[in-house]
Amino acid sequence: MADFYGSLLGADAYHTARANTGWAGENDLKLAALLRASVYIDGRYRKHYPSGRWASLFPGEKALGRAQAREWPRTDAQDYTGAAISANEVPAEVEQATYEAALRELVTPGSLSPDFVATSLIKSEKLGPLETTYAVPDASAPGASPARPVITLIDEIIAPVLVARYELPAMVVV
Predict the structure, then answer these.
(1) Where on the phi/psi map is residue 111: left (φ > 0), alpha (ψ -120 to 50), or beta?
(2) How far apart are CA 157 and CA 78, in angstroms?
(3) Is-contact 55 165, C-beta < 8 A?
(4) Spatial contact of 22 and 107, defined as CB atoms under 8 Å apart
(5) How far apart are CA 66 and CA 55, in angstroms?
(6) What crossing angle do the helices spanning 92-107 and 27-44 adopt, rounded to 10°?
(7) Are 59 and 74 in contact (CB under 8 A)?
């Protein structure tokens, strides 16, 4: 089982088809970017509940449980249409999202999961008569991750293999 989703050949073909010229350079750097991208994909699609519990937003369970480093392959998984996903399959959506993330990691290593130090935020600065006030994220908000970028293209690619998870108790109003 690979340490990352997809393959170097798959990533090369994906980026060539899209004319992504940033996907260039030595294979060792590309492989490292694919690994960092896979770690990002696994972490990005987990939810942290107010109770402190974490849950994957992917359907089913890891095929090999805790012995498995990546979230995929999974058992009892299906896509948003209800179509079954084989227990030995990594969906194309996961691979393609990884290729998109790997491009960003190749161009700017560490950009998908940068360190965040709340005390280093600048709320406003003044230079002579000019003053600028910045939007400061609320790092204490539930689920907030102000240092992690939201990449809409990746979210849209992977959406068909995500599930909504809720923590109980919940109330349904009819």
Answers:
(1) alpha
(2) 16
(3) yes
(4) yes
(5) 14
(6) 120
(7) yes
Among all chains, which residue has been given the structure tokens 């089913």? 60
102 near 36, Cβ under 8 Å?
yes
In total, the chain counts a number of residues equal to 174
Residue pLDDT tens, the chain, 174 long? 569 999 999 999 999 999 999 999 999 999 999 999 999 999 999 988 888 889 999 999 999 999 999 999 999 999 999 999 999 999 999 999 999 999 999 999 999 988 766 666 667 778 888 888 776 655 555 445 556 788 999 999 999 999 987 766 656 677
Question: Phi-psi region for residue 128, left (φ > 0), alpha (ψ -120 to 50) or beta?
Answer: left
CA separation for the pair 140, 130 (Å, rounded)? 30
pTM for this entry: 0.81
Q: Say how many Å lie between the first and final Cα of the chain, rounded.
A: 46
